[in-house]
Design brief:
Low-confidence stretches: 1-25, 211-219
Number of helices: 11
CATH class of one domain: Mainly Alpha
Helix content: 40-55%
Bound molecules: heme C
Strand content: under 5%
Oligomer: single chain
Largest sheet: 2 strands, antiparallel
Structural class: mainly alpha
Shape: globular
CATH architecture of one domain: Orthogonal Bundle
Number of strands: 4
Strand order of the largest sheet: 1-2
Amino acid sequence: MCSLNKVIIACSLIILTATSASLFANETGHFGIGKKATPEEIAGWDIDIRPDGKGLPEGQGSVLKGEGLYEAKCSSCHGLFGEGEGRWPALAGGEDSLTEDRPEKTVGSFWPYASTLWDYINRAMPFTSPKTLTTNEVYAITAYVLYLNDLVEEDFVLTQNNLASIKMPNEENFYIDNRPDTNNKRCMNNCKDPSKIIVVHSLQGITPELQEKESTEEQKPLLSDQAIKGKAIYATSCSICHTSGVAGAPKVGDTAMWETRLKQGKDTLVKHATQGFQGTTGVMPAKGGNLTLTDDQVKNAVQYMVEAK
Ligand code: HEC
Ligand code: HEC
């Protein structure tokens, strides 16, 4: 147990120990704290792929194999031909559109290297279950997305040896930008009144935004405390499917879609949302794919969905 005056002594002891550890032992990290990462730990993080193909694991996959995989795992969001369902990102098309007012940036029209495509799919897709594809599946699906962009033929087989040789149409337009990071001089006094600053440009994300339904909600009965707590959870982890109704998800607010579901009782709905559920219209991933949510948070989100309808 520590008393207040002992805390200071204890602290200096810890600092001493940390410093001497860095002097006498090699096992700690660079600043004398932590521990050295093992080669296995580094390998777990070191998954990036370079444009020259360095970092690619051994493997292969054909356009043909990729077609079925893509249709099963990707097309519900990105469209059968990579055209993008609803407001989900398109992966193909947009050739020669980069200089237009509304450029369509896709893998084929914009991306500089095929290695980025392999890496992106490998680390981040499918959106709700990343890292579930095998190495050969990533090769096959990458080959198919390249095929959708007319960059390879239909009998093409992608391997770790030929990926770097694929030339992407927009590569030349990527170059080292050596302009200074800031344009304006820093202002330290008599600066512009912030309320007079007008934003003339804002970044547009490509992920569909939550369509807030504030105005209609206000006319409905007030939400319960539980539903109010659940609203933010819904916005971050559930709305991506349940606001648009993508991939067979029942749309929040669509009474017909919820009628029979509600008859199962709230406990069943919560159970399905928490543990995941394969129904007749699609797959509800456990906790919407966000396994960091607590059971209570999921319960609150369901409550919000039920009341917001
Ligand atoms: C549930 C919907 C969903 C599914 C299924 C899905 N994706 Fe995506 N995908 C997204 C979203 C959303 C983004 C944008 C993510 C972001 O910007 O952070 C994205 C981005 C991408 C991008 C980058 C697009 C760009 O131009 O920036 C690629 C490539 C991609 N997905 C490939 C795939 C592949 C291949 C599969 C199947 C293995 C797949 N996705 C399955 C939703 C999905
Ligand atoms: C990747 C898309 C996706 C996400 C994200 C998602 N859901 Fe679902 N959800 C579905 C689909 C698809 C169904 C319909 C399954 C069926 O009935 O075939 C569903 C069904 C449900 C149902 C009805 C279950 C039933 O028994 O009828 C509830 C409740 C639900 N989701 C809650 C949630 C909650 C809460 C979240 C966020 C924590 C969430 N969902 C996130 C896709 C999603």
